[in-house]
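thought: fold this chain, then report.
action: predict
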Amino acid sequence: MRILIANDDGYLAPGIAALVQACQGLGEIDVIAPEQNASGTSNALSLTRPLTVHEARGEPVQGFRFVNGTPSDSVHVALTGLLPHKPDLVLSGINQGANMGDDTLYSGTVAAAMEGYLFGIPAIAFSQAEKGWTHLDAAARVARRVVEAVLESVIQRPPAQKPWLLNVNIPNRPDADQLPWVTTRLGRRHASEPVIRQISPRGEPIYWIGPAGDAREAGEGTDFHAVANGRVSITPLQVDLTDHAALPDWRARLGQA
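observation:
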């Protein structure tokens, strides 16, 4: 078993060190992650400048490699030229803060896992529901159990579609590893709050992206509902954005057979 681990908080983030430690003994681990925090970069690739890769020194990041780019850059470089062997599994996280509902479209954590998925490799993204790294040790134990359970289930019952992509959100609780798991769908958020306008020291207007909107679809069965009710949310994701239900209507509107 070869495992590639990435994240979007940067290679120095406590979450990635915790995930690496949690996966010890499962196989050969490579860590290739962004040099800087790259939260909210989604699936961005750096196409207008070269990328560099360096190896970290000192615990707990000894041997980690870091890329001066995005989460997707890190996994892309790893899979297309850096690693001598294709990994069997790509893991991303553990992220500081939830990646639920519409957040998954912006998430660098999910994007790193998705890059593996796009290359035909099963992948899992892990996030804690709240920022601050509280009870990270418990979240790491959840990640270990999820990886073990998923690998065992794949051996016993291979999925109809390969590869697969899972998005896992874990409550920040000391007993997180004792909480039940729920297979969920993505919820939805209200629109983001307005941008925050300020004046720079040079007298120019500057803008900060406003906070994310509150949950709008958070009923039973959603990732929001699961986490709010003390459960670990596991959501299978896909990349196909096609509105299949609307295809016949649009064909008719555009005069197509």
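thought: worth noting. The longest strand covers residues 28-34.
final: tokens above.
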